[in-house]
Specification:
mainly beta, SH3 type barrels, 5-stranded antiparallel sheet, 5 strands, 5% helix, elongated
Length: 88
């Protein structure tokens, strides 16, 4: 896993403590194999590693072909908000 500094946004001074960090990654992969019977696809990605995935929507496998480029974009986000506990 790649370690790197992610942009972090903190709440303004005087507000409750909190922060947010967002990371978006883009991965390019090439379709190596499509198995309509098993609803799976094999993609060759970073460092020529081939991994198999199960399609959530089988119709999408019919729209692609071996050799196609697939661009995968995913975003992860972490939000932390601290609040004072209610006093009883």
């Amino acid at each position: 896993m790649l370690n790197r500094a992610l942009p972090v946004v903190r709440n303004a001074e005087g507000e409750e403590p909190g922060m947010e960090s967002v990371d978006t990654r883009v991965i390019n992969a090439v379709v190596e194999e499509i198995n309509l019977e098993n609803n799976t696809i094999k993609l060759r990605g970073v460092n020529d590693v081939v991994e198999e995935y199960t399609a959530k929507n089988p119709d999408n496998l019919k729209k692609t072909a071996v050799g196609d480029l697939v661009v995968i974009t995913y975003t992860t986000s972490v939000v932390v908000s601290l609040r004072h506990a209610a006093q009883e």
